[in-house]
Amino acid sequence: xxxxxxVPDVENDSLEDRLYTVKYxxxxxxxxxxxxxxxCAERCTTYDCVSVCPAGVWRKxxxxxxxxxxxxxxxxxxxxxxxxxxxxxxSYPGTGSGVTYKxx
Length: 104
Ligand code: SF4
Ligand code: SF4
What we know:
single chain, alpha+beta, Alpha-Beta Plaits, two-stranded antiparallel sheet, 22% helix, flat, binds iron/sulfur cluster
């Protein structure tokens, strides 16, 4: 007989509700890019940048090059490390812009 751990009855906000609390100041230009678009189109089979992003910033484009909705970026850095080809150009948005977390 297995013993089930006690799980407290806590109601968490949905991901959408939590994302709604994030404030974002548009830097006006993307702080994200790919170094070599042809590498994405011709060599990438996994599209880890798409699957790892918690905010849906990266989407597989028609030509095999990702489209990047940088405005939604949470600045977690995951896409930078997930790309198996080191093909993600990543930087923080300019001073005073980017994401602000209400709940830390
Ligand atoms: S994981 Fe890297 S190589 Fe693959 S599509 Fe994304 S940025 Fe391009
Ligand atoms: S830094 Fe995080 S939120 Fe921003 S694009 Fe990369 S994976 Fe998505």
